[in-house]
Amino acid sequence: MKSIQSIRRGERLTILILIVFFLGMGVLVWKVVKESSFYMSHSDDVTLGMVYDRNNQILFDPNASTETYDENYFLDVGNVIGDDSGQMTNTLVSENIEKLQNYSLIFGATPHGKTAIYSTLDHKANQTVYNAFGSKNGTAIAYNYQTGEILVCVSKPSVNILDNYSNISELPDGSLICKAFYETTPGSTQKIATTAAALETFGYDGLMSKTYTCNGIYTTKYNQQIKCHDLNGHGTQNIVQGFENSCNPFFAQLVQDMPLDNIIQTYTRMGIAVNDTKMQKIQFDGLSSFSASTKLTDTSDFDTMWSCMGQSEALASPLQMMLWESAIANASGKVTEPYLIDHTTNVTGSTKYEAKTTYGENNIFSAEVASQIKQIMRQNGQERYSSIGYPVGVKSGTAQVQNGASENSLLVGFNDDPNLPIAFCVVIEDRVSGEISTSDIVSTMLNALNQN
């Protein structure tokens, strides 16, 4: 009897050992399959695939040289697509290098594999917008607010990857980053968020019935002065007029009439970190973008008023400013999530990943408020920006930077046309009157996208 029990214990032990063995093999195989591209990306034998735009134009070629490409061919996408040199991070290539590995578990490294990333960018439109900046620096980003496809992403100054970074120490500041993903002072474009807070506080009819007078300067109860860009004043205005005139005294009085908590609630829903609260960075396709922030303490105080007009400690990324426009343009109150990778292919050319349209989990404001802001922005577009040549809804901004030493010009908005549903944000740094304007660049951009 004891020998039979011993045999059965031995059988159970053998079965247990076999189960553990096969489980271990399964885990090993899974890790090999999952992590093979990582190890190949750190191998001296690695070969990489291409990155293409939406029209199959090459945006990254691991073997690129001036012998095969025009010397400025990659300049417009240098700091957003990047390369495999390791000099830049937060670029499409640097953060997705594993997706470009020409490696197969069966065939190993395949130098002539068909691994590729197909991006949503329109290279021709991107080049046109880049050139439209002329001698000015700044950034422009635009996407389809119905689908989330990023079509244009330009940042100047940029880096020419064909130079092999031989002059890296001489590159102007900002060349190695895509400014569309990093913080900037939003200026009066912030008045969109403040208008949303006012609509949620007073309702549309209540807000429309409010008027405030601008005499050029508004003095707060703390004897602080809020100056208008027109020191002659705009007279008595309602919200539509105050928005069109981008009138600081109007918005100072509007902010003063609102409970602080209402403004903070609206800003927070929009993803703005208020008073040192933490917000997650915006993540897409391995890339990261800065999350907006500001400080609000007292609606009668200059700094809070100034923050609600996009100055003081207010910061936002052009990408996030553009995303807010999708919630307005779609009249849904919900952000259309962005993406830069349309699909990827493996070494055999088979599709491995394919993007799909997604939306933010929560509304940043109600659909009703989104529709009302859209109406106000569309009227501003019709009254002040008809030269763009499209049915746009827009808000401009002038941002004082470098402690007031210079000013950036901004324009955010959307094209209200289902055949060309584009939301955008354009920033021109250190703009001087009489030079290229943000509306000029938006017009150029929409024309370029409309032709492709």
UniProtKB/TrEMBL annotation:
The keyword Membrane applies. GO terms for molecular function: penicillin binding; peptidoglycan L,D-transpeptidase activity. Keywords: Membrane, Transmembrane, Transmembrane helix. InterPro entries: Beta-lactam/transpept, Beta-lactam/transpept-like, PCN-bd_Tpept. Gene3D superfamilies: DD-peptidase/beta-lactamase superfamily. The keyword Repressor does not apply. One of its GO terms (cellular component) is plasma membrane. Residues 138-432 form the Penicillin-binding protein transpeptidase domain. PANTHER family: PENICILLIN-BINDING PROTEIN 4B, PEPTIDOGLYCAN D,D-TRANSPEPTIDASE. This is Penicillin-binding protein, transpeptidase domain protein. It comes from Ruminococcus callidus ATCC 27760.
